[in-house]
Amino acid sequence: MSLKFAEPQDGAPLQVTKMDVNPAGTRLVAVGSFNTINGYARAQIAQLTTTGSQAGLAWWATDFYDQACDDEFPSIMRNVSFSPDGGYFVVVTTGGPRGPDSPCDESARWETSSTGGGLRPSWVDFTGGDTAYSVVVTGTAIYLGGHFRWENNPNGNNAEAAGAVSPPGISALDPSNGLPFTWNPTRNPLGVGVLDLLATSAGLWVASDTDHIANQYHARIAFMPLSGGFSVRGTAAPGLPAKVYKQGGSNPYASGSFTFNGSKITQTMGGAGGGINWSDVRGSFMLNGQVYIGQSNGQLVRRAFGGGAFGGQVGVTGADRVVADQDWHQDVQSITSMYFHQGRLYYTLAGQNQLYYRYFTAQSDVVGALRFTAGTSSAFGQVKSGFYAGGRYCYSVSSDANLRCMSVSYGTVTSGPAVVSGPGVDGRNWQSSAMFAFQT
């Protein structure tokens, strides 16, 4: 290998701290204190090609890690791990709390196939002031180890902030968005932290500088078996054709269902039971047999639903158990529609022309502490209720009884909107308080 690593970060010793190779053996990611390789800017991270007779520098570059953290950490890079399919890798750092625009004390997912300069991570999860030393990706989960006290804590400054979740020293994150699953064996004391992790087909090996994990004595090393654990369901959004439920309207308890093929309504069917007053609802969506309902009091709840009566109400409070996220609850009070797609909870707010999203993990009922803007359109500010299925976002407005649909990709409008149903099209009235596409 003829690669010259140079220009150490802020006076740190020049070194490659950690590296990992993808399962196919074609790519290597190295992290460390370097800032250039063969004269090309590579701020503390680089991806190398390993298919030839010697490794070469890939056209993959980011300045994300070229930002200052606390002075005591001249280099913040701590570890890296590829996913089992090699499609992405996760990097963990130290550095002290610097807020949600920094690379400090966080974990970040990067896509292997991205090319070019100025690349950005797919997501970032912040501890709010503590280090993760180790990471291993299994596909189902991303396991982190260190001496961190929280996850989903971007606004924390060595303290818990709104939305924080507390898995002390070891955690399992959702690969789609970086939010924590409920898995929480706990470590007490934290010590320096979990310094290494090894995932096998049987379970997870944990190496640390302490003697207790999961309230049991394990001197420095412990094994967490997969047997006896829990599985994580897939979270695919509804496809097409979709069965769409229209709830409320002039009668707040009314319900109807329809078949939507992506361009028109093809069938009218009976509605749902349950006796819910939908005039108090602020948007809804369905995922894995649960209908998620925003309420006028700012709470998000879920109810089991199989097409008949709704089950009992359960609060979606995974991000409220340490410090309640009041910004999120204020959003819920103004939501007009929402839907879930690939780890993101998208929603519109009354009178606003933006489509927003937060990360959401159903397994743990955790909503992300940060709000992002996915797209902008005057149509979003007119929404009264809406649903998503198969790349189509459809909605009603207050000024007429039509159903309009547009094509969206990660929140960006790619075509439309256009009227697909309504009194003048097929005789149907789409005035409603909420809609959702059925998904089991």
Output the keywords.
single chain, 440 residues, mainly beta, five-stranded antiparallel beta sheet, four-stranded antiparallel beta sheet, 1 helix, globular
Give a concise summary.
This protein has 440 residues and is mainly beta.
User: How would a crystallographer describe the biggest sheet?
Assistant: 5 strands, antiparallel
Approximately what portion of the residues adopt beta-strand conformation?
35-45%
Distance N to C terminus: 52 Å
Number of strands: 36
CA-based shape: globular
Helix content: under 10%
Low-confidence segments, given as residue ranges, are none
| Radius of gyration from the alpha-carbon trace, in angstroms | 24 Å
Q: Mean of residue pLDDT? A: 96
Number of helices: 1
- What structural class do you assign from the helix and strand content? mainly beta
Descriptive overview:
The protein has one helix and 36 strands. The strands form ten sheets. Strands 27, 28, 29, 30 and 31 form a five-stranded antiparallel β-sheet that branches. A four-stranded antiparallel β-sheet has the order 2-3-6-7, with no helix packed on it. It has 440 residues and is mostly beta strands. Helices cover 2% and strands 41% of the residues.
